[in-house]
Amino acid sequence: MPELSVSIVNTGSRKLLLACLESLAGTAAEIVVLDNASEDGSADAVRERYPDVRVIAQPYRAGFGANHNTVIRATTGRYVYILNEDTTAGDWAFDALTAYLDAHPRVAALGPRLVYPDGRLQDSAWRFPTPLVSTLSLATLGRLGVTQSRGDAPRAVDAGAATSRRLGGALLPASDRGAPRVAVQRRDPGTAHQRDVA
After folding, report:
1. Which of 29, 34, 109, 116 is 20–30 Å from 72 (CA)?
2. Confidence (pLDDT) at 178
């Protein structure tokens, strides 16, 4: 059984998906791609270029959470890394991420720091929108109050990229593959991500 499985859902983003898989080449992770009824030849391209990647060709479109639930049930790793197809990295730091979860068994999900290709830090963690947080954010045009993405050390946050805005990546224990998992996402078009361990 692999230590880590990577769950990727693709919907008509062949070029981005292939770049993502290229950056994952050489990792020890099990990689499973669900093709969400793409019409651009994505599934065939993955099978041709990456024969070790398992492809689930779904003939109908389903939502983000339902698609990743399908992939999670098909994985065999101890942990599952949920990943967008538009994400690349020079160093995925999977060993560091799994080691952190092993050392902190009370942590239910772990999201790494996200950076843009030019190295700028990308917001990836936010406070829950209480009246105080919302007022502070409004008064400072979002510069204070909501974002918790700053810093260089792991820490608890109210909502990470895996549960709110953009899903760069989230690592989850795969102890109960049959249990439904809920994921909510609002995509910002044209955004590509790279990540680094915080």
Report:
1. 116
2. 52
- Position 198 pLDDT exceeds 80: no
Q: Please state which CATH number belongs to domain 4-124+161-196.
A: 3.90.550.10
Rg (CA), the chain: 17
Instruction: Give dist(CA 73, CA 142) in Å, integer.
Output: 38
Phi and psi, residue 79, nearest 5°: -125, 155
Sequence-separated (6 or more) residues with CB below 8 Å from residue 92: 23, 24, 27, 29, 195
| Extents of the domains making up the chain | 4-124+161-196
**pLDDT band at residue 187, thresholds of 50, 70 and 90?**
very low
The pLDDT confidence band at residue 54, using thresholds 50, 70 and 90, is very high
Q: Is the dihedral of CA 1, 37, 82, 67 positive or negative?
A: negative
Q: Over range 112-141, report the average pLDDT.
A: 72
